[in-house]
Please model this.
Amino acid sequence: MQGNEACAYAAVVAGCRFFAGYPITPSSEIFEVMARELPRVGGVCIQMEDEIASIMAAIGASWAGLKSMTATSGPGIALMAEAVGYAAMTETPLVIVDVQRAGPATGVPTKPSQGDIMEIRWLSNGDYEIVAMYPWSVQEVVDLTIRAFNLAEEFRVPTILLMDGTLAHLHEKVAIPSEDDVRLVNRPKPSSPPEEYMPYKPSSYLVPPMASFGDGYRTRCEGLAHDYQGMPTSSPDVYEELVRRLCDKIRLNSHRIAQLKYYFLDDAEVAILAYGTMARIMYAAIRELRDEGERIGLIRPITIWPLPEELSDLMSEMKKVLVVEMNYGQLVREIERLTDRKRVVFCPWLRLEFPCLEEAKAMIRRHLHAG
Amino acid sequence: MRLEVLIGGRGGQGVQLMAKVLGHALAIYEGKEVVHVGTYGAETRGGVSIAELIVGDCRDEVMCFKVSSADIAILLHSIALGHVVQRLKEGALVFIDPTLVSAYSLMNMKAKVIEVSSHVSRRHGLSSYLNIFMLGVMAGATGLLKLDSLVRSVEDVIKRNREINLEAARRGYQYGIKLSRGSRG
Model:
């Protein structure tokens, strides 16, 4: 099955019972499958009038106690910007799928891109952290969709699953696990009696227990800066503690959240750093180039936000790091901050299709032996 | 062994469905690793429709999902000619319907062109099922997959008009075997 379908089926396994969306190429099949599958398991799938209403409906459903999701592409994500900030501030567990297409603006709807890496990171005003992951195969779409729900619930944070137009429509063999075969995480629930409950008082790992509306607890979904009770405030002390916590609950737990994989690094002098669909093309190209005697390896961040901390150590052992992205320079800026800038070489790819093997090898060779 | 398959045609001819049936048969019933990417326009009818399939024995062989030199191609319409011919390996097998694609246009290619007359499918009342018929022909002629795998895949993937699609697959497969014997003899 294709990436989009796999994402939707995995979401249902992960316990998703609410989907609101507005169709957009290349993400629409997620919506189609959800519209068919959710009613069968007692869930709700609803088409809203636009992306703003879609994400707000998903936020509402999450506060009513359901694991909820929306899916769109770059232009839709742009419309969801304000609501992502609202979800971050209200600490709403939510999964947003962004199937990237070539931009900016409406761009080239049917062509893939990796151009939303910074868009998803900096959607809202103010300081907050999100979680974002980018799979490289249809099976990994399944695994990371389930993980996205788990992380969204555990950390009460909007979590973004990145795909691109190619991965979304790539057909591969997958195993969809049953609910009994996967570890599912549910949001922390209050254990205190209702009269003592404070909806934004953090637990030991900085995440407050979440009562849903209707659970019998007095709770508030508040986008203004708020105290433990959820009451609006402009107190600098309360504000500082809140904003630090919204960031630190991800930053200080990033060792539990961030994931990366690396390949062929044992004898490598040069590493290629790529993620998502581009990483898999690079993997194939590196295998062939190694047969030709090139000592190169691959570093693949699976979690894009937060970036895995091991990246610095891995890169410090390399003479050169080639960062290959299907955009004109996004994650590379972040990579430069993590290592000696002189080591980093940026290889943009803006051809509207991922490179074929020969093109990928030619690109690597060109940068490998330049300067 | 890594094998690249390219299917090209016009939107509405069932190019992507062919790729789905073929990929499903190979992945589920032949134990292969398969990756399939479809490229098509926004239209449901017309426009170029291309399906790329990579078939391998292990995961590493299908990491790159782009066809750059196809071993096997099926060309259902001349509209897709340009997209297919530039990505053929020397000696590739190209299955065409000569009423929709001129064999002349492939003359300069170092490929082996196999003309599958649509009269054959028409004779059996299967002209609307040319896609599955052609897939059967390719499967029978190349031995890439067993008839049983193809039939089971059609049963899994195709919901509408299943019986007649099954007949198209079987007839095509038999015709493909006949073609391959003819070419050897």
User: Anything to note?
Assistant: The longest strand of chain A covers residues 94-102. Chain A is about 40% helix and 20% strand.
